[in-house]
Design goal:
The complex is a heterodimer of chains A (360) and B (247). By secondary structure, chain A is α+β, with helices and mostly antiparallel strands. Chain A contains 15 helices and 12 strands. Chain B is built from 10 helices and 12 strands. Classes of the chains: A alpha+beta (360), B alpha/beta (247).
Chain lengths: 360, 247
């Protein structure tokens, strides 16, 4: 195993990534705020003497972003690599295990950076002795472009966007969006004023007016949105999205199908499709056989900082083992960690070394 | 674990009174005995059973750990406290007391929120507006996580509440709560309302068998005796005896 770790270190260093070793212990809130409550049950938690909740890092991505922010301007170009222990509560498995990976921050040639990341991940998988990798790719930017082009109401757009990655939920949502009666009238200014007054009165009466939670305006706005939601999204968008999500196959075939779908239904997603094609070409230029990749239009991660390209690698020889590599583009993460709202291009991947096992 | 069957019984309050009454109804008299009589006891005329007096959450925990064979505790306690409870515990019989609902309650002023789906929209919208996640105060961390995940809600965080959960929204500690209620009066008095599909669990005190405990022949025989005293049906008895034998 040590030998293959050495070859990984060499591989990442030769590709221009600098190894970092960020702290193991962080405030738990860093992880919970970013990844949500669902991650917390997998964290190893403890308390500082002052009561602050601390966690052992469950991955490297967030600690590497913190390291990046602590050592210079957020937008600068930096390529980081890591290899070391991460900690997650896993029933029946060791809670401490090794991950290796890279994070490439600040590269504005996103298509090239995406292709480089997948290429390096596949080289790493080969170095670990996995001969028959199953490689799955997706791109949430395509889904984002589709719902943008369909001219949906903002609340429906948000609902659909945040369900992307959970196809069962998304499909059910589309069915319901289509089934909505569409007869309900959209509430107007008068209704909003009345709702605002009512909410303000109740906030006052229950002592919540000065707490800093949801305001009367927020509540009134959303009440209007509810009438928009009740109006549904209509037949055509539901049909287009259903067909869109079903597209799967090699990247070339998927590109052809998505182009045909866009043309047939008259939705303009041409710029995003062009970037998709460009990335496929860049992958081919790296010597990656596109016939070995499986694109799925519904493949994404339900973490709101992932913004585009995603990929994962399984071992065909051991189909029961979970993903060995998970990677993708997360342009929103650095700004969420740094709290400055400005997107920083970022792409990377992690290898679950405990699952790699090829040469163990 | 050889020796007597260990029966976990609530050590105080209303829950203990109701438990003693339920056992009395089954013709069983619990008496405290021995040197550690504050914590230990037996059942008059029934050999092979030792009674351990514990708090309701302790009983649930010990059932999960296999340190008691059988216990009286709420379904809410078992589902919250015992990891992997479906494999570690078996509900033998509801006992007809200790009723409570575990519910999701939000401020009455949220006139736009009636359902969990509404709450999902609000949670997703909250962080961009307020720069932090929507916060839920509760003692029922595991139940809340499972229920919210089942409704696809990801944009929230939990603060653990150690008492008077219903006051958390008014104090600013959380935007909403998950708590137990019997009549809803306390929630109402605190300006909170229950979501229409926000009842996570309808709970009641149960006789609960531990599947994590070791069961020998004598202990299984003692269990069969208790189940028969509680007039558990033939099929339910067979199902439970099998679960215990396989444990």
């Amino acid at each position: 195993m040590t030998e293959s770790f050495e070859s990984l270190r060499r591989l990442f260093s030769d590709a221009g990534y600098g190894f970092v070793e960020p702290p193991i212990v962080h405030p738990a809130s860093v992880f919970v705020e970013l990844a949500g409550e669902d991650l917390r049950r997998r964290l190893f938690l403890t308390n500082a003497p002052d009561g602050t909740e601390l966690a052992l890092r469950p991955d490297y991505t967030i600690p590497v972003c913190l390291h990046h922010l602590a050592n210079g301007p957020a937008k600068r170009r930096a390529d980081y690599a890591y290899l070391g222990p991460v900690f997650r509560q896993r029933p029946g498995e060791s809670g401490e295990f090794l991950q290796a990976g890279v994070e490439s921050l600040g590269r504005t040639d996103r298509v090239g950076a995406d292709a480089d990341a997948l290429k390096l991940a596949l080289d790493a998988v080969a170095a670990l002795g996995i001969r028959r990798p199953a490689i799955r790719i997706g791109d949430s930017a395509l889904f984002g472009a589709a719902i943008e082009a369909l001219d949906l109401s903002p609340p429906w757009r948000r609902r659909l966007a945040r369900s992307f990655g959970d196809t069962k939920r998304l499909t059910a949502l589309i069915t319901r969006a289509n089934g909505a009666n569409g007869n309900g009238s959209i509430a107007g200014r008068q209704e909003r004023t009345a709702a605002r007054r009512k909410a303000a009165g109740l906030l006052e009466a229950t002592g919540l007016a000065t707490i800093g939670g949801r305001t009367a305006d927020e509540i009134a706005d959303r009440l209007i949105e509810k009438s928009v939601i009740a109006a549904g999204i209509g037949d055509r968008p539901a049909r287009v999205l259903t067909q869109f999500l079903a597209v799967t196959g090699t990247p070339d075939k998927a590109h052809a199908e998505l182009s045909a779908l866009a043309k047939r239904e008259g939705i303009d997603i041409a710029p995003t499709l062009a970037r998709f094609a460009e990335r496929n070409e860049a992958l081919a230029a790296h010597g990656i056989d596109l016939g070995r990749l499986t694109f799925a239009a519904d493949f994404g991660r339900r973490l709101d900082y992932y913004t585009g390209f995603v990929f994962e690698v399984h071992d065909r020889a051991r189909p029961k083992v979970a993903q060995i590599v998970g990677g993708g583009r997360y342009d929103r993460l650095v700004s969420l960690v740094g709290d400055n709202g400005r997107a920083v291009p970022a792409v990377g991947f992690s290898i679950w070394l405990d699952r790699a096992g090829g040469s163990a | 674990m050889s020796g007597p069957l260990i029966l976990g019984v609530p050590s105080k309050g209303r829950l203990q009174d109701d438990t003693l009454a339920a056992f009395a109804g089954a013709g069983l008299e619990l008496v405290r005995s021995g040197a550690a009589r504050r914590y230990r006891g037996r059942i008059t005329g029934v050999p092979g059973i030792e009674v351990a007096y514990l708090s309701a959450p302790e009983i649930a925990r010990e059932i999960g750990a296999g340190a008691v064979h059988l216990g009286v505790t709420g379904r809410d306690q078992v589902e919250e406290t015992v990891p992997d409870w479906q494999r570690r515990a078996a509900f033998a019989k509801p006992l007809g007391f200790g009723y409570c609902d575990v519910v999701v309650a939000v401020p009455e002023a949220w006139i736009d929120v009636d359902t969990m789906e509404d709450l999902d929209d609000v949670a997703a919208d909250f962080r961009p507006r307020h720069g932090r996640r929507l916060t839920v105060a509760t003692k029922y961390i595991n139940l809340t996580r499972r229920f919210f995940a089942g409704h696809g809600i990801a944009d929230y965080r939990i603060v653990e509440s150690l008492g008077a959960t219903e006051g958390a929204p008014a104090s600013g500690a959380a935007e909403l709560i998950v708590d137990i209620t019997t009549t809803g009066t306390t929630l109402k008095a605190n300006g909170l309302k229950i979501l229409s599909d926000g009842v996570m669990l309808r709970s009641e005190a149960h006789l609960v068998a531990s599947l994590a405990a070791d069961w020998d022949d004598r202990q299984r025989k003692a269990l069969a005796g208790l189940l028969s005293a509680f007039k558990l049906g033939k099929r339910d008895t067979a199902r439970l005896m099998k679960a215990v034998a396989d444990a």
